[in-house]
């Protein structure tokens, strides 16, 4: 195990009563907050009313910025920063999925500086402080409520960049599994594939580490089992709870601590494609991962075999079947993701172009002009 520093100061409340802590915890962060949320879910589910009532009861005033898009955008973050500055907010409250929470992190950091927030993502400026952040996740997947990372898309050039900084760790996370039950099967599956990808990419790009390997495969197997249960019983609380907690643990730093340098190649490609085509992150990963796994299996068969054995231990009923068989990698939900086959050709063409398109600030693309010769990719609503 290699040396590491593990810094995690997020206070987590988990369970059916977690949201009851909202008013008290917000009051401890500031008397005026910026409330960020997505486009439809908060109002449709009645969650907006519950949150604003809790804030009012605690004596916390707020300003709202709703309509945050999937694949969060630079322009929306700039608008949120301007709103935070104009109103002198002291903290940020994010209610939604990974896109909302990532946007909130960018706003929290950008509100504390005079320069443009995109300079953080280009690696030109460092984050040295941020407004305190409280997260209420409504989707299990990104784990953004418990980690120090964020991703943002620049609509002007199609660049989608992720970065991490300890100041981006949320101060508080209120994790109620029941809040994830109203997002539907498609969004549930998108989140599950994202979490599996977090685990699998770290597993395959780092040296073997017995403790971390067992943690990763245990979480991965649990996620798959929960998805199978939720397909038949969408409101099953235990499965929702395990899926939400597994997604938080997968990218909290526990899984990668002691592994040394790790890479996220499938995510890098999904970011490049998502920045250009505005496709759902989970759907892109579902298309990319099977091909990437075949690529890795040909070069690191022992690592893929170790992953498969951890997820699918042999049982007497399986007889002589090899638990590391490539067929094991065809997790059924991947074949049912709403990204139709006609889109694959465009994805393949886009992949050829965007494999050369850097998504990290340390090595910017050679030209600010991004090719725009490909049509938008259709996907099933």
TrEMBL record:
SUPFAM superfamilies per the record?
Answer: Dehydroquinate synthase-like
Record keywords, A-Z? Oxidoreductase
User: GO molecular function: any one?
Assistant: alcohol dehydrogenase (NADP+) activity
Q: Give every Fe-containing alcohol dehydrogenase-like C-terminal domain span.
A: 189-322
Q: Report one GO cellular component.
A: cytosol
Provide the Alcohol dehydrogenase iron-type/glycerol dehydrogenase GldA domain boundaries: 10-177
> Which Pfam families does the annotation name?
ADH_Fe_C, Fe-ADH
Instruction: Fetch the Gene3D superfamilies from UniProt.
Output: 3.40.50.1970, Dehydroquinate synthase-like - alpha domain (1.20.1090.10)
Tell me the protein family, please: Belongs to the iron-containing alcohol dehydrogenase family.
Alphabetical list of PANTHER family matching this protein: ALCOHOL DEHYDROGENASE YQHD
Instruction: Tell me the protein's name.
Output: Iron-containing alcohol dehydrogenase
């Amino acid at each position: 195990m290699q040396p590491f520093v593990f810094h995690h100061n997020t206070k987590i409340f988990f369970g059916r009563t977690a949201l009851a802590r909202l008013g008290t915890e917000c009051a401890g962060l500031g008397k005026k907050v910026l409330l960020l949320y997505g486009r439809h879910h908060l109002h449709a589910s009645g969650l907006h009313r519950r949150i604003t009532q809790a804030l009012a009861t605690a004596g916390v005033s707020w300003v709202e910025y709703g309509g945050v898009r999937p694949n969060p955008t630079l322009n929306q973050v700039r608008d949120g920063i301007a709103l935070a500055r104009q109103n002198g907010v002291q903290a940020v409250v994010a209610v939604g999925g990974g896109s909302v929470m990532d946007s909130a992190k960018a706003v929290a950091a950008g509100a504390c500086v005079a320069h443009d927030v995109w300079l953080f993502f280009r690696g030109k400026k460092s984050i040295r402080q941020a407004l305190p952040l409280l997260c209420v996740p409504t989707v299990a997947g990104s784990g953004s409520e418990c980690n120090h990372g964020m991703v943002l898309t620049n609509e002007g050039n199609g660049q989608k960049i992720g970065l991490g900084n300890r100041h981006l760790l949320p101060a508080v996370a209120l994790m109620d599994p029941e809040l994830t039950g109203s997002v539907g099967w498609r969004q549930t599956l998108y989140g599950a594939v994202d979490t599996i990808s977090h685990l699998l990419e770290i597993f395959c790009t780092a040296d073997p580490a017995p403790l971390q390997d067992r943690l990763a495969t245990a979480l991965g197997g649990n996620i798959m089992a929960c998805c199978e249960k939720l397909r038949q019983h969408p409101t099953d609380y235990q499965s929702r709870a395990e899926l939400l907690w597994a997604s938080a643990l997968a990218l909290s730093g526990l899984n990668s601590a002691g592994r040394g340098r790790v890479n996220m190649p499938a995510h890098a490609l999904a970011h490049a494609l998502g920045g250009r085509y505005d496709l759902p992150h989970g759907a892109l990963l579902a298309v990319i991962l099977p091909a990437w796994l075949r690529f890795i299996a040909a070069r690191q068969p022992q690592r893929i075999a170790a992953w498969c054995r951890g997820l699918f231990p042999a049982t007497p009923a399986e007889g002589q079947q090899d638990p590391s068989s490539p067929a094991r990698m065809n997790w059924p939900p991947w074949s049912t993701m709403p990204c139709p086959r006609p889109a694959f050709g465009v994805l393949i063409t886009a992949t050829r172009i965007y494999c050369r398109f850097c998504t990290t600030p340390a090595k910017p693309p050679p030209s600010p002009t991004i090719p725009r010769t490909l049509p938008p990719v259709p996907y099933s609503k």
